[in-house]
Amino acid sequence: MSDVKKVVLAYSGGLDTSVILEWLKDTYGCEVVTFTADLGQGEELEPARAKAQALGVKEIYIEDLREEFVRDFVFPMFRANAIYEGEYLLGTSIARPLIAKRQVEIARETGANAVSHGATGKGNDQVRFELGYYGLEPGIKVIAPWREWDLLSREKLLAYAEKRGIPIEGKKQGGSPYSMDANLLHISYEGGILEDPWAEAEEDMWRWSVSPEQAPDKPTYIELSFEGGDCVAIDGERMSPATILATLNQLGGANGIGRLDIVENRYVGMKSRGCYETPGGTILLKAHRGIESITLDREAAHLKDELMPRYAKLIYNGYWFSPEREAMQALIDQTQQVVNGVVRLKLYKGAVSVVGRKSETNSLFDDRIATFEDDAGAYDQKDAEGFIKLNALRLKIGARLRSKK
């Protein structure tokens, strides 16, 4: 352990990472640099600085990464329409590679030769963080305290904190009993009664959205503008990526949109039940597919849909910095050059519907061909006969063979 001189710790200022901070110094005899990222979790992060200072940390990084998070991670993922196992919009998964990237950069800046995180040995986050570290800095030393120490209960953590003089804040009155993770894309809930997959989540658990039953009785209409596959404006007003997502979160939450209750398959092998609120992401996904429907060639769109489950699994499992994800991203981004236009959506009691779409420059929808009225010769219906016969040829041959048996 003497080879660890300085370590960059992903630090929240909570009990777990405060204990980890002291444990690293105790166990490795090393200097600790703390890094706290603002990804839009909605919490005041400056108290983390005061806590780190009180614990003797000299190099403290607290950084606002909201724009980079949405621009360089969330938006590229949404160009692929990525959903894991048909439902999960990957809110936690997509945040981990950015945190890992910045930790490695800080390690280089400060001369640290190790990084550390607070993920447990049961979850996906340990995999996501560490694949990110190794993908960017193959020789980095990774320290995962939950896989090394014997502080495997809250009582032991509290006892260690008391012994080391680590300030312990009591749980706020009415605080959540759930393990939560939040960023601009979503908020997640695990633990508590959710560990029983038969138990319905309590209404007061949800933080970002009203229930669909309590949502307004009048629908909300919005228009999203897209350029190169990315949303750039809401109702004609151009905004930064982070502002767009934050605004869509407010609009979606007010209309009861984005709640999800699933049992997912973790990469480490177990099934886990979690609840998620992703109001802005739910709207964004619907709108993106809406504008793609009139701008993407059929086979390009179908190819994207075939690749999407694998792309989503790569992100869920932590392979953001892998060559296969980067190759798939290049293909996806090439298709998005024509994804330009405006989508009109209706938000109503938990549902988001596309009710209009247009593209002045890239629409492949030709009303002269698609019409049920007189198309003035734009489409010769007789051509369909040969098309059908050629495509039926193999079916006819097979049917004749079966009839002889």
Summarize the structure in words.
- The chain is an alpha/beta fold.
- Among the domains are: 6-70 and 91-164, Rossmann fold (3-Layer(aba) Sandwich), CATH 3.40.50.620; 179-296 and 339-358, Alpha-Beta Complex (Argininosuccinate synthetase, chain A, domain 2), CATH 3.90.1260.10.
- Helices cover 40% and strands 19% of the residues.
- The protein is built from twelve helices and 14 strands.
- It has helices at 15-28, 46-54, 66-79, 96-110, 125-136, 154-164, 241-254, 279-295, 298-317, 323-335, 367-370, 383-403; strands spanning 6-10, 31-38, 60-64, 114-116, 141-143, 179-182, 187-190, 220-227, 230-234, 237-238, 259-265, 271-277, 341-348, 351-358.
- Strands 3-2-1-4-5 form a five-stranded parallel β-sheet, sandwiched between helices. A five-stranded antiparallel β-sheet has the order 10-9-8-13-14.
- It is elongated, with a radius of gyration of 25 Å.
- It starts with 5 loop residues before the first strand and ends with a helix.
- The mean pLDDT is 94.
Per DSSP, the total helix count is 12
- SSE arrangement, N to C: EHEHEHHEHEHEEEEEHEEHHHEEHH
CATH superfamily of the domain at 6-70 and 91-164: HUPs
| Rg | 25 Å
Low-pLDDT residue spans: none
Strand order of the largest sheet: 3-2-1-4-5
